[in-house]
Design goal:
This protein is mainly α and 65 residues long. It has one domain. The protein is built from three helices and no strands. The chain is rod-shaped. Keywords: Membrane, Transmembrane, Transmembrane helix.
């Protein structure tokens, strides 16, 4: 599952980098902005789904002890 979190973090970083590129460059294509937003939102969606799925894992560990 840690591999999944790594992928989510990489997607968020790539999306953020694209958005920073669009801000920094004067004549950047609007497609970079769209792609950056889609990538960052996809990474955030995957991350929140992972957090919801694993939010009660600490309770299971308490029961085992």
């Amino acid at each position: 599952m840690k591999n999944s979190q790594l992928v989510n973090s990489i997607l968020i970083a790539i999306g953020g980098a694209l958005l920073i590129y669009v801000i920094a460059v004067k004549d950047a294509s609007p497609y970079f902005k769209i792609a950056g937003l889609i990538i960052i939102m996809f990474g955030l969606y995957r991350a929140t789904n992972y957090w919801v799925a694993t939010k009660d894992d600490h309770k299971e560990d308490e029961h085992r002890e």
